[in-house]
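Quick one, tokens below:
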């Protein structure tokens, strides 16, 4: 049994990771400021240290006695980076340097969340890890900064790291009502209640949607793949889905006829985003990713169950009388 620190462990992806670590018998310590995460997402038995990941002294304490760190805490919103450039920089890049710095004494491995946002708009698809990095946002620039500092951590301080560039992640516990929600959580929420959805532009734009269970599998396998060479890998499905098809598929899962309103395309939006998963699959030994339909069913089931947090899910079911 090992103990792992999970920063951002009360968030969407972090809560799924903590549940998987606990299920395989590991101990979990979570560092989270609960800014977008929820205490309802704390895995039973996990220790919560509430605070800021950019607080170096706190992170050093959190790192004591652990075998490694999964670093997911971040302000995971491109829009927030536009409004609060410095504030998001502190959480997203200074926070990562605080984690790497705290890993120095024991040269502890750090697996951290990067993002497809480091690529910006690419002409060649699918996007391999070797594609030029051209972030178009403060959020993407800070994630690229995390990768650069991970290189420094390896070369200068012999700290093993692995960066995972997540594409559009979806799954239960992604808050559908947040202003920064992804399209899947918004569409599932609205269509499951029989409400219309809005498609921006012609709906032919595509994204690479990756189910959260596949992201967790990559994170878990990634702890063994962390190295002082600071590798970075895509975490994606390798399958393009248009927004139009997405609306139809979600409506099917919900058993409703989709009512779709159209609005002009969002300005500055990327037309197509598609990752190449071959390198991460080979290096991390990952299996076939979940099908879109399978993942959507899990999201709709979670919404229909009243959006339970991890705590409620872990509670034993009431006895049947
Ligand atoms: P989330 O907002 O659900 O989780 C982030 C967690 O970090 C939350 O629990 C939040 O309270 C915590 N946090 C935020 N700022 C903090 C701070 N300063 N100190 C301590 N805790 C803090 O988001 P998520 O979707 O689970 O994202 C997890 C990670 O994956 C992030 O690093 C994000 O940038 C990255 N990522 C997510 C996606 C996606 O599609 N969801 C895509 C690419 C990358
Ligand atoms: C992501 C960011 C966004 C940022 C963009 C920069 C998230 C959730 N969004 O957007 O803030 O500006 O990267 O590249 O991280 N869509 C609809 N109807 C909706 C919602 C979305 O048609 O109600 C469409 C969008 O126009 C887009 C697609 O669905 O074409 C996916 O949108 P979204 O889930 O926001 O992700 P990104 O476009 O990747």
């Amino acid at each position: 049994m090992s103990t792992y620190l999970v920063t951002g462990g009360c968030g969407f992806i972090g809560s799924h990771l903590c549940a998987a670590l606990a299920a395989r018998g590991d101990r979990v310590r979570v560092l989270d400021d609960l800014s977008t995460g929820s205490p309802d997402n704390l895995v039973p038995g996990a220790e919560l240290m509430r605070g800021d990941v950019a607080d170096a002294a706190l992170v050093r304490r959190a790192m004591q006695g652990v075998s490694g760190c999964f670093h997911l805490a971040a302000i995971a919103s491109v829009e927030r980076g536009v409004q609060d450039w410095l504030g998001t920089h502190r959480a997203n890049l200074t926070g990562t340097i605080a984690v790497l710095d705290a890993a120095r004494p024991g040269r502890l491995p750090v697996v951290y969340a990067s993002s497809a946002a480091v690529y910006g708009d690419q002409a060649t698809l699918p996007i391999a890890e070797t594609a030029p990095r051209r972030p178009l946002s403060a959020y993407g620039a800070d994630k690229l900064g995390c990768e650069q500092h991970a290189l420094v951590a390896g070369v200068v301080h012999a700290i093993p790291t692995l960066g995972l560039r997540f594409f559009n992640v979806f799954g239960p516990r992604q808050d559908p009502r947040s202003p920064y929600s992804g399209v899947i959580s918004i569409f599932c929420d609205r269509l499951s209640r029989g409400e219309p959805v809005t498609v921006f532009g012609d709906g032919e734009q595509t994204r690479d949607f990756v189910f959260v269970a596949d992201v967790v599998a990559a994170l878990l396998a990634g702890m063994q793949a962390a190295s002082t060479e600071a590798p970075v890998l895509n975490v994606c499905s390798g399958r393009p889905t248009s927004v139009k098809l997405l609306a139809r598929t979600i409506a099917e899962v919900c058993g409703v006829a989709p009512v779709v309103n159209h609005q002009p395309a969002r300005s500055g939006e990327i037309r197509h985003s598609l990752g190449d998963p071959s390198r991460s699959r080979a290096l991390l030994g990952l299996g076939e990713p979940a099908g879109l339909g399978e993942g959507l069913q899990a999201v709709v089931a979670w919404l229909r169950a009243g959006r339970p947090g991890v705590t409620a899910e872990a509670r034993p079911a009431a006895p049947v009388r």
